[in-house]
């Protein structure tokens, strides 16, 4: 079958289309899935660009959606023909999060979904939402679940609250869809007025161009009339102090990304003065994913896909992501 491999030293130029062995039939507790779509996340980019070391020849991409072709002995949850999507942390089924390890994460510690067919344990998949197609479902296991966990599982988002979102990538745009479905008000930032206009079309209540206003945290605080309830913090050290400015007393900052780097100064006194909550999180459990799926089906919300590429053009897809030309998600058709 066809697959994409990352050759070390990893870079976008090291990605190659390869013929690899078919994974064969599923063993006990396993399923064989014919993949139809995957999608790009910053985590995937970090792997293929060499920012996160992985084994030579790794098949990248953490997210996948497809159709069950065969089930192994003892598998009762799935049947041939079922539409399924992957789980980012296959070992984290429910309960408290384990230590943040990517040893079993597809496309990082193990081979991922940049290929035509996989055989994996049944616990590495859930069903897809009935109202979504394969490309839409492939946008959910990393970005979608991260947004869901931040706002609904950990944040307990309530109608009437205000959410501040940074940028217009996959997590932020899906968080926008979730927040509006829950009856919340949404502020979103971007350096592109065109992208901000698209966010308003999706229901954003207030938009801020952070290039035009480098005190966007203060603007968000003032617009919310005393601070926002939640910030989905994707930037990390370069933006977290603005997030602290933006929150209300007792507000919640969900630290889910490090786009501006992994180290930096945090204004801890300001965070203490506001008695704010700064919480780091990485994606979520399989049980959380099932609750997200139920909510998607109940509300009809969908991920936003701005661009689609063929699997054999995966390097071009990553260059498109690198240049920040996308809005929402980039899907890859298999």
How is this structure best described in words?
- This protein is an alpha/beta fold and 334 residues long.
- It has helices at 42-48, 134-137, 140-154, 170-181, 193-201, 216-223, 240-246, 268-273, 286-299, 314-322, and strands at residues 2-6, 15-19, 30-39, 65-71, 83-86, 117-121, 125-127, 162-166, 185-190, 206-209, 228-233, 247-255, 277-280, 305-310, 329-333.
- Helix 3 packs across helix 4 and helix 6 packs parallel to helix 7 (240-246).
- The longest helix is centred in the middle third of the chain and has 15 residues, at 140-154.
Which key features would you list for this structure?
single chain; 334 residues; alpha/beta; seven-stranded mixed β-sheet; 10 helices; globular
Runs in which pLDDT lies below 50 for 5 or more consecutive residues are none
Average pLDDT value?
Answer: 97
Q: What Rg is obtained from the alpha carbons, in whole angstroms? A: 20 Å
How helix-rich are the residues, as a percent range? Answer: 25-40%
Instruction: Give the CA-based shape.
Output: globular
Instruction: Tell me the fraction of residues in β-strands, as a range.
Output: 25-35%
Q: What is the count of DSSP helices, taking H or I runs of 4+ residues?
A: 10
Q: How many strands, which pairing sense, and closed or not: the largest β-sheet?
A: 7 strands, mixed
H-E order: EEEHEEEEHHEHEHEHEHEHEHEHE
The separation of the N and C termini measures: 11 Å
- Based on secondary structure, the structural category is alpha/beta
Counted beta strands: 15
């Amino acid at each position: 079958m066809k697959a994409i491999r990352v050759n070390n030293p990893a870079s976008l130029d090291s990605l190659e289309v390869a013929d690899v062995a078919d994974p064969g039939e599923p063993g006990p507790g396993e399923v064989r899935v014919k993949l139809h779509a995957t999608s790009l996340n910053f985590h995937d980019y970090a792997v293929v660009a060499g920012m996160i070391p992985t084994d030579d020849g790794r098949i990248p991409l953490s997210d996948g959606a497809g159709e069950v072709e065969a089930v192994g002995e003892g598998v009762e949850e799935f049947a041939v023909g079922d539409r399924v999507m992957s789980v980012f942390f296959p070992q984290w089924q429910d309960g408290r999060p384990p230590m943040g390890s990517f040893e079993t994460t597809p496309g990082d510690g193990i081979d991922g979904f940049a290929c035509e067919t996989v055989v994996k344990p049944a616990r590495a998949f859930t069903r897809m939402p009935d109202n979504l197609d394969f490309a839409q479902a492939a946008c959910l296991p990393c970005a979608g679940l991260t947004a869901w966990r931040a706002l609904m599982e950990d944040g307990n988002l309530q109608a009437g609250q205000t959410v501040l979102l940074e940028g217009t990538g996959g997590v932020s745009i899906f968080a926008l869809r979730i927040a509006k479905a829950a009856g919340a008000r949404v502020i979103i930032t971007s350096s592109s007025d065109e992208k901000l206009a698209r966010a308003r079309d999706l229901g954003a209540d207030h938009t801020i161009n952070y290039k035009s206003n480098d005190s966007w945290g203060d603007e968000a605080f003032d617009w919310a009339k005393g601070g926002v309830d939640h910030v989905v913090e994707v930037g990390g050290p370069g933006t977290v102090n603005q997030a602290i400015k933006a929150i209300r007393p007792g507000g919640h900052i969900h630290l889910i990304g490090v786009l501006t780097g992994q180290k930096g100064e945090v204004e801890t006194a300001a965070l203490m003065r506001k008695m704010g909550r700064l919480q780091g999180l990485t994606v979520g459990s399989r049980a959380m994913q099932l609750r997200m799926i139920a909510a998607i089906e109940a509300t009809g919300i969908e991920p936003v896909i701005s661009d689609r590429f063929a699997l054999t053009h995966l390097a071009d897809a990553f260059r498109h992501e690198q240049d920040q030309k996308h809005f929402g998600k980039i899907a890859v058709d298999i």
